[in-house]
Amino acid sequence: MNNLDQGFLQEIEYQKRMLNNIKKYLKISIVLSACSVLGLVLAENMPLKILSIILFVISIFLVLILGWVIHNGYKNVNKVIDVYELKKKQA
C-alpha cells in the first residue's frame, strides 16, 4: 500500500469518525427537543412555558442543521471513495 492509498483510507476513516461524532450531537438535540415538549406540557407558569418553547425551537433548528450536515457528509465520503476507486483503476 503506497502513501496515496494510505492517505485516502485515513481521510475516509477520519470523515466517518467525524460523522459519528455529529450523530451523537444529533441524538442530544432530539432528546433536548423531547424534553422541551415535556417541559411545555408540564410547566405551570408562563416563564417556564416560554423557555420551553424557545428551547424547542432551538433544538429543532439544531436537528435540521445537523441532519443536513450528516447528509452532506455522507455524500462527501462517497465522493472521496469514488475518487479513490478511480485512482486505483488508473494505477
Total helix count? 2
Structural class: mainly alpha
Ends: how far apart? 12 Å
Main β sheet profile: none
E-strand count? 0
Shape: rod-shaped
Radius of gyration: 20 Å
Stretches where pLDDT falls below 50 for ≥5 residues?
A: none
Proportion in helices: over 70%
Mean pLDDT metric: 94
Secondary-structure element string: HH
What fraction strand? under 5%
> In total, how many domains does the architecture comprise?
1
Notes on the protein architecture:
By secondary structure, this protein is mainly alpha-helical. The chain has one domain. It has two helices and no strands. Helix 1 runs antiparallel to helix 2.
Properties at a glance:
91 residues, mainly alpha, 0% strand
Summarize the structure.
The protein has 91 residues and is an all-alpha fold. The chain has helices spanning 3-42, 46-90.
Element layout with pairings:
Layout: H1 3-42, H2 46-90
Helix pairs in contact: 1-2
